[in-house]
Design brief:
The chain has about 160 residues and is mainly α. It contains 4 helices and 4 strands. The strands form 2 sheets. A two-stranded antiparallel ribbon has the order 1-2. A two-stranded antiparallel sheet has the order 3-4. The longest helix has 24 residues. It is flat. The two termini are about 75 Å apart.
Length: about 160
């Protein structure tokens, strides 16, 4: 809801007519017009899909002002430099907290699982190719004239049907 700013004399205006009578009225402070949401551009982040740009509600991309974006880029660079210095000094380590999510892997168990999966896959493949091995090739002899007729009927079916009429 948009509220109009009051005039300088406390939202009351005095009108003097030529006959020296005065009347006062108040300007309404409410409006029936719908409120229009304003778009505020988001702050840039290092993970933005297109660095230096933000997406408008319409789906188009617009560029940040270079000075505005440069402030954030300098901050990200200083944060990264401080992190790297901490790693170099040994104050920070790169893999803290990963021990909780790590799990042991037994290579023999994984190899057994892989063998079982391969065996099942081969059995399924044998069902589709037949029990005797790979599918047999079709028993056909194609000559050049036969091949020409086959291609002709594939590419010109209407021509063949008109000829039959």
């Amino acid at each position: 809801m948009r509220i109009f700013p009051p005039p300088l004399d406390d939202s009351r205006t005095t009108i003097k007519s030529a006959s020296t009578s005065t009347s006062t009225f108040s300007i309404p402070t409410l409006s029936s017009a719908p409120s229009v949401p304003t778009f505020e551009r988001p702050e840039p982040t290092p993970q933005d899909p297109y660095p230096g740009y933000y997406q408008l509600p319409s789906g188009q991309w617009a560029a940040y002002e270079p000075e505005y974006y440069e402030k954030f880029r300098r901050k990200w660079q200083s944060d990264y430099d401080a992190y790297v210095r901490g790693l170099e000094k040994g104050a920070q380590r790169g893999f803290e907290g990963y021990e909780e999510s790590a799990s042991e892997v037994d290579a023999m168990k994984e190899m057994q699982k892989a063998k079982i999966e391969i065996k099942e896959r081969e059995e399924r493949k044998a069902l589709t190719t037949g029990a005797t091995g790979p599918a047999a090739e079709p028993n056909m002899t194609l000559t050049v004239s036969c091949l020409f007729c086959l291609l002709h009927t594939m590419f010109f079916p209407r021509f063949m049907s008109d000829e039959a009429d």
